[in-house]
Amino acid sequence: MELNLADLFESVAEEIGVAEAMVAGTRRLTYAALDRRANRLAHHLASTGVGPGDFVGVQLANGTEYVEVMLACFKIRAVPVNVNYRYVTRELEYLYRDAGLVALVFHRRFRSAATAALGAMSERRSVLEVDHGIDLDAEAADSPRRGGVDDYEAVLAAASDTRDFPARSASDLYCVYTGGTTGMPKGVLWRQDDIFFGAMGGGDPFASGDHISRAEELVERILRPGVTALAIPPFMHAAGHWLVFSTLFGGGKLVTLTSGGFDPVEAWRLVEAERVNAVVVVGDAMARPLLDVLAEDPGRWDLSSVMAVGSGGAVLSPSTKAQLAELLPGRMVADRFGSSETGQVGGEAPAGDPFGPPRLRVDDRTAVLGDDLEPVEPGSGVIGHLARTGHVPLGYLGDDLKSAATFVEREGRRWALPGDLATVDGDGTITVLGRGSLCINTGGEKVFPDEVEAALKDHPDVADAIVVGLPDERFGEQVVALVQARPGRTVDAAGLSAHAHTLLTGYKVPRRFVLVDEVVRSPSGKPDYPHARSVAEARAVEGREAPVAPTVGPGGG
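The chain above was modelled as a monomer; its predicted structure follows.
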């Protein structure tokens, strides 16, 4: 059995066409209407010469158009490419060129940067602008549409909505660009069959591990009524893609924020208005503001429909989970660990150290491999590389060297090594320590930012924190934390250090604290480590950071 994403969606649309698929502001689309709009766009793109294997940029905020573009590309065997809408022109030029884009769809709010980068496209067979009034800045509102850029709704209106496309393949490509934590963006290429099973639920709406075994089984498993999910993460990131398709393949309804950004008050309003069952976030950066506005007035919204809160792309800290349990008692809280290179990996294990790193349940596709690619012995304490086999990507677009380092073969099976270091406990549970590229080596001891950040965010006055390493003459590197206080509260270095010492061994406690108005993260909620490091370096040079003398040196307890 091999499956194609467009074929799968069309089978669901045929089965439950009258059911609502998406709600975005005043637009409400049934499955049949979403399918027809995607058909129209697919016919337009095909008429301009876009076809199998061609890459199409999607530079859009959340909305029905994002999903329409992805489906339209899949229908004609083209490859949609997620474009980070925060990129400036220079970064867009790199991505347009690296992906070899031949078509582009962008929101009018991104007109200035997008049109300035069009020269970097491989070809310009079709460039479409979406305009439905989302947060237009003055420049975008006043500037005329550039020649060669067509109106999205106009081309849809002029195209056929019939579903008359050539046969497709399970090997048609899915691509997701990931900026990672360092370096330039990279396009990860998957076969569609592999991404369906690796990250889009595999036809298992309850995430029980029971994937479909035949294509017809997908519609047999559709939930009636389906789950209503509030999609807070940007669709331009992998976690957003996977939420979209896992929801639609289960017959659910996607609700998006109308502002095109993250507004916690609007989020809870939509939960009440649309009777949302699942609220999906990316880590603390989204969960904490949601909980803060809820704590201010717990009875403001009717949240009785909420059954689960899930986080994808970043795990929730223990303190955030505790607040969730307090404000939304009885709801399921689920962390989904994964990456663009692996899809979803394992499942959350029973809590051990509440302030420690993520722990995963392993399955026959998940392991920790040493540098020799041999499995790490459980309970040995050896740090190895988190690895995933089975449904894994083909590689990185245009980067054979990086592909060879990340996607390796062992005993006839391909494994993806996304860069996370991990150990295996005696009971076989994997403890994920963090990205190896972010590991801080202080006096010969390894410090992983995730663990320190979780401890700092446990402080009641801390809203957010990012931890980086800076050069140190004595110890090689020192641990430095950027900390953002909760609104109306203050924090100081001595108090933060004392709190961290109650949760962490001495060498992990930051030697310096940089107090900032805002911790900068990506639109998906992931930490921007390069920016954090540059801020920490600048503040150190200016002498504006707050140093704390350690109670014990590196290597001590």
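The radius of gyration is 23 Å.
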